[in-house]
Amino acid sequence: MSNFSINTRVYYEDTDAGGIVYHANYFKFTERARTEWIRRFGIIQQDLLEKKEGFVVSKLSANFKKSAVLDDILTITCTPIKLRKASISFYQQVLNEKGELLFDLTCDIAYVDFNKGSVKAMSKELIQLIEKEIVVD
Known about the structure:
Order of helices and strands: EHHEEEEEEH
Number of helices: 3
Mean pLDDT: 94
Distance between the termini: 9 Å
């Protein structure tokens, strides 16, 4: 479904005592994929923070299908599915080396003015870049 993905290995620090990925780490994996997806547009999160604005997760729905284990190589996809003036919705998957779906989620990120603590419209330039990336079912 997605043309954008990153790969990562499951390290000991990602797992519980049984060598299975701790559930919260799937959210870290998907966050990294969204960050790299955004970085492709030349947007650096640190630059946004210096301007006191940036993206925050506003909603998510996750499904745990199968466990990843120590030393697995994971592919994490990032597919934008909806764009609004101040937010982006994504569908993301975590797959193992066999292509088995381990975890998926839908996630909304909102663009926020941290000084005001409220949602802010993204720049027209950013919206134009992202519009080209939206995947519709």
